[in-house]
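Re: the 522-residue chain
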Amino acid sequence: MNRSEKFNQLAGSEIIRSNLKEKSIRGALFMAGWSGIDFMLKMVTTFILARLLVPEDFGLVAMVTAVTGVLEGIRDLGLSTATVQRNDIGHLQISNLFWINVSGGVLFFLFFCAISMIISWFYREPRLVSVTIAISTSFFWSSLAFQHEALLTRQLKQGQLAIIRLSANLLSTIAAVLLAIYQYGYWSLVWREIIRNILNSIGVWLYCPWIPGLPSKNVGIRELLRFGRNLGATNLLNSVISRIDGLLIGKFFGPVVIGMYRQAYQLMTVPIDQLNQPILNVAQPGLSRLQSDPDRYRRYYQKILFFVSFTTIPIGLFSFIYSKELVLLLLGEKWIESTEFFRIFALASAIRPAIGTSGIVLITCGKSSRFFLVSFVHSFVLCIFLIIGLQWGPVGVAIAHVMTSIVLMLPKLYYSFAKTPVSIGVFFKTMSSPFIASIVMAIVLCILCNFFIIKAPFKALILGGFVGALVYIIVLILLPISRKEVITLYKDAILSIHKKKPIGGKKSPAQHRAMQENKELI
């Protein structure tokens, strides 16, 4: 096998397009399984580190990441997404993108080393100089893996990516806990980030044996760079605005308050991200392959939106109702002041993920300039609400995120779906059933909390979780539209899991049905 054939195996999309449905479902299910394990790992880690460390330790790291996180969204310069979105791409093109990514990683590292003193002066905290320099090394280590991750994503090899991330998280977590036990304080959190990025890069190279070539001229990457520029500008804008709350709280209220704020944010967003990431990772390459087929694109998007709404809306509302119990169980008594923040972020988590799928439509349809404009308006409005919310302290800053999502929901959806295979009507029709079922569930849980007051957090969560899940599922089954969707998802999952290899050259019945269904995707 020559070099060209080997590269086509890593970057080709013909096999994916011909068998998209099966690979999408299997990739999402496999990654969801590993993500579930990763989620449990993060919860256990939060439980342990929250008791070994103090809020100030988390606050010091949060102060730095509030600044370094500004460039977090553009650390790949939008080029890994460009690699995934492009239907056809060559070895020389990806090699050039690889070296651009590495150059960017080095520049980002040097930039934060240069401004580490400024960060320390801004917060009036001398310990932040060394913390900033250490954390910024992650930009270089992660830059080595962007194009390899993009190649794995193009092939919908989400299982391999999930294994890599889980292994990196597990080993870096063990290191962090050991350092915390030996009284290294906030440095245990710093080293966790560094080790995780190093191990992730090593794992990606092992699973994707692609060796980049030397930089070349005239290989046709101008369009890729233009797409990456628009996407990178959008991510930079989002990163800047999303970090303003941390900067404001850290500046005016100190490391303890920002520690409470950030821990509540991560405690709520981690479960949502763990649930959504598998399907969103599959969605991008899947939708990108269907740009020229509007009907299949729309049906595929509806599956994605239903899954996102099906998981995030009920979890967000459940967490809103049981915010105090969750904080006490996972973080402990000394974090009780973060409950108000957690409650606000829970409400935001019930609203934002479904709306956020509009961004996937813009990216996979190649409308990166419109994506930037939508993000700019969102960021501008959020900035205004943050300034207004500051009048009511840290809680007002947190509320600004929820208000921005509510105020901009309709105009954002309308403009994002214009001239795409998706419409705003399709959006609301698809997510209406999970929304209705979640509202009914929330009402029942509120009544339950008023009539059965349980002081033990664990017992309260067990009872609430059982009742909430039961009510949610019953309502979904009673609604005709959602009943059909749930049954379809179940059948697709079973068919994918039990797919057998052909014996004696003949296809099994499951394979035959899969091939027939792959023709129409949904």
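The CA atoms of residues 123 and 405 lie 30 Å apart.
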